[in-house]
Design goal:
single chain; alpha/beta; TIM Barrel; 11 helices
Length: 325
């Protein structure tokens, strides 16, 4: 496994296991199997609803001596309903309890969206809707600044509960603002990134400011088909160019797309529950894409975002919620 050095010299494994939409019934075994295969980077979140099962997988792997805790990088995320200062630490403590570990290696603000608090005993994870009953359930926003939330995140680092803090789904304007008041530097920005959504300016800004970028949904449309947020013809893996490059290297289209990401200095967190796919997604360090191949793949960029609250929140939750415009 290759690593990326963060601004503070902590080492983030370049390829991780994304755990979004991993069924509870599969999560523990998937995590155990991934660690056994060689994964040392797990990307979790409160909102995924499977942290208890992920924790069971971590505990089993550690009990078998498959790796040491210090060799395992665990990321989780602060959900939107916990942005107020007084809710940040309790949210983190719930995640620690569920994952059965005593610290998080990286804790991220999941979205730059503050929602009204939903108590743990009412609903956990709280998801998007404030109330799930009624004729017209909606998202209920809260008036909380990112500065307030970030200050509480920084305290988690000072208290020894979190090693690194960062953000998800931020653009350059929000990053610029964050950097003006951050006392602890953001280690990582996690955003949707694949050849159809290359975001070169955002990547350049992060690299210019010692913020490591992680690409979620690095294989593109596949994660969104079952949600109705993508169509089969949206798959970058079916591009003729990708198939030709894959053939020339004796690799799969997925491996070519993952290699495109890591060769630009980013980490990637593909998702799978199948052992053969888990292995395949790690086998991306024994070849190099040429400059011509990289440049050709860069031209596939369509600025096509699959995971956009400005689209899905209105359709699914009756609430207009743009963040990228």
């Amino acid at each position: 496994m290759k690593n990326l050095s963060l601004y503070n010299h902590d080492l983030l494994p370049t390829v991780g296991l994304g755990l979004w939409k991993t069924p509870k019934s599969d999560a523990a075994k998937t995590v155990h199997d991934a660690i056994k295969i060689g994964y040392r980077h797990l990307d979790s979140a409160c909102d995924y609803g499977n942290e208890v099962e992920v924790g069971n997988g971590i505990k089993l792997a550690l009990s078998k001596g498959l790796c040491k805790r210090d060799e395992l990088w665990v990321t989780s995320k602060l959900w939107n309903t916990y942005h107020k200062k007084e809710h940040v630490r309790p949210a983190l403590e719930r995640t620690l309890k569920d994952l059965q570990i005593d610290r998080i290696d990286l804790y991220l603000i999941h979205f730059p969206i503050a929602q009204e608090f939903v108590p743990f005993d009412v609903r956990y994870p709280p998801e998007w809707l404030y109330e799930t009953s009624g004729e017209d359930p909606k998202i209920k926003f809260a008036n909380v600044s990112i500065q307030e939330t970030w200050g509480a995140m920084e305290q988690l680092v000072r208290d020894g509960l979190v090693r690194n803090i960062g953000i998800c789904n931020f653009g350059t304007s929000m990053l610029r603002d964050l950097l003006t008041y951050a006392e602890i530097h953001p280690s990582v920005l996690q955003v949707e990134r694949h050849p159809y959504l290359a975001q070169p300016k955002l990547l350049k800004f992060c690299q210019s400011n010692d913020i490591t970028l992680t690409g979620f949904s690095p294989l593109g449309a596949g994660s969104y088909l079952e949600l109705g947020m993508a169509k089969p013809e949206d798959s970058v893996l079916d591009e003729t160019l990708i198939s030709e490059i894959a053939g020339s290297h004796g690799k799969t289209p997925a491996q070519i797309v993952l290699r495109w990401g890591i060769q630009q200095g980013t980490s990637v967190i593909p998702k799978s529950t199948r052992q053969e796919r888990l292995r395949e997604n790690l086998e991306v360090f024994d070849f190099v894409l040429s400059d011509i191949e990289m440049a050709s793949m860069n031209k596939l960029d369509r600025n096509h975002r699959f995971n956009d609250p400005g689209v899905f929140a209105e359709k699914a939750f009756n609430t207009f919620c743009p963040i990228y415009e």
